[in-house]
Amino acid sequence: MAFKLVQARTAGGQCHLLPLLLLHLVPAILLLLLLSRSASASTSASTSTSTVVTHLPGFDGPLPFYLETGYVGVEEETGTELFYYFVESERSPGTDPVLLWLTGGPRCSGFTGLAFEVGPIKYVLAPYSGGLPLPQIEYNPLSWTKMASIIFLDSPVGSGFSYAHDPKGNDVGDYSSSLQVQTFLKKWFTNHPQYLSNPFYLGGDSYAGMVIPLIATYISEGNEKMQQPLINLKGYLVGNPKTEPKYDINFRIPSAHGFGIISDQIYEAAMKSCKGDFVNPANQLCAGMLRKIENLISEIPDAHVLYKKCVVAVPKQFDDASRRKSLLEESTQINAPPGRPDLDCFTYGYYLSYFWMNNNLTRNALGIKEGTIGEWVRCIKGLPYAFEMPSSIPYHLNLTTRGCRALVYSGDHDLEVPLLGTQAWIRSLNFSIVDDWRAWHLNGQAAGFTIAYTNNLTFATIKGGGHTAPEYQPEECFAMARRWLDNEPL
Fold first, then answer.
1. I want to staple 247 with a disulfide (CB 3.0 to 4.6 A). Which of 177, 192, 286, 425 is the partner?
2. How many other C-beta atoms are found inside a 10 Å radius of the C-beta of residue 11?
3. pLDDT, tens digit (0-9, with 9 covering 90-100), for 163-173
4. What is the pLDDT, as a whole number, of residue 174?
5. Residue 245 has what pLDDT?
6. Which residues are catalytic, by number?
């Protein structure tokens, strides 16, 4: 039978092609997938394991949400397995969107998204000096799982609890890690067919914003080739996303000037000597000015220019060999405890997570495989990674032109990926404006500003937000995400 291909249309846009007949057969196909789930254990599910987590150390009573953790094999040759945390929507899991959330770095654990950004738990910020009792955690009422099911993924391999049996498997880059995420999603949806008909979105911040458009492109292309299972991709959202040095780095200088970190004289001298190119200094005078500016910027935390400068709460850099040395016996060997921030520091929660994650009570609850990861580090450095993509902007252009919904948001006090650069690359797409620049509101107050373009592209600022905006302004980001995911105007 010849299948007529039609574009799958919803209020949320279109990202791929679906055969017309398949649209009528989805319920039957889902039933068959459910019945055959156990029979498929010898194929794609053979490298997948999962654990339903009902209790966590430091949390009072059973968890008030559905949490599943697990591993999915994504490369047989090196034995690479990606670890995930899945939280089902607390509203309507049968129809709410499914969101894959990636954290930046690269190689920051997806647990960052779960516990610090958009997930349903957060740490109780109280003095802690190690040992038992472990740091306390509590429910986050502003979790995005109020309106979406979320998969928090440790990607690329080497992040969090994701690992490779062969250390060579840790040698990945933008393209290979993105393909592994695509493989992960295909296997995950094969094992969770009940979510296949839900709208699917990709989300993340910082460096994740670099690879999310690439992953979305791989998914879209796979759907057009009718690769099973067909993922119901509707769009993506990225916060303070890295895209290209021309924009990310060049706009640090005018942003630092606007924030009052550098003077008029320094800014004007830099513009004159560098001729607007702060990425590749063409002369010694320009290079000297850039060093002077970076020294001034180093006086403040560039992730949020108004915050106190604190210890970042990560151990010293180490490689994979030292990470996997002295693995678990009765307790996890902590090789290099992080510096301890002050209790009023933004990074204190990171400090608590290090000890909480490196305790066997937590690992047993999460279903972590013994002998795979020794010391858990929120953001690991020292493993090889190829920064292969010169720019993600062509992928943004391709996806939005094809009909994918896109929300790009910027915490407006970030100097790592300043909103001026994000505005500039969005304007470079030359899309027409459909809803001009205006304030968007929460509780009768401006929560930021927004502009909407053709091809379902929306840009929004988060007033008072930093580099990872949901960490700094959770209430505003919750409102923004709920409205956008529900196809409502901001």
1. 425
2. 10
3. 999 999 999 99
4. 97
5. 93
6. 206, 414, 467
Between the two ends of the chain, the Cα-to-Cα distance in Å is 45
pTM, two decimal places: 0.88
Alpha-carbon torsion (32, 69, 177, 18), positive or negative: positive
Cis preceding-peptide flag for 106 (omega within 30 of 0): yes
Given CA atoms 104, 108, 111, 112 in this order, what sign does their dihedral have? negative
Encode burial over 181-218: b for 16+ CB neighbours within 10 A, e otherwise: bbbbbbbbbbbbbebbbbbbbbbbbbbbbbbbbbbbbb
At 335, the pLDDT band (50, 70, 90 cuts) reads low
Task: Provide the phi-psi class of 196: left if phi over 0, else alpha when psi is between -120 and 50, else beta.
Answer: alpha
pLDDT computed for residue 228 by the predictor: 94
Give how far Cα 65 sits from Cα of 55, 68, 86, 88, 474, Å. Answer: 10, 10, 10, 7, 19
Domain ranges of the chain: 262-297, 396-485
Average pLDDT over residues 165-183: 96
| pLDDT 10s digits, 88-115 | 999 999 999 999 999 999 999 999 999 9
Does residue 233 have a pLDDT over 60? yes
Greatest alpha-carbon pair distance for the chain in Å reads 72
Residue type, 255: S
Q: What CATH number should be reported for the domain whose range is 396-485?
A: 3.40.50.11320
Position 281: which residue type?
P
Looking at this protein, which amino acid is placed at residue 370? Answer: E
Closest CA to 251 of 306, 313, 293: 293
d(CA 78, CA 169): 5
Which amino acid is it at 323?
A: R
Band of residue 208 on the pLDDT scale cut at 50, 70, 90: very high
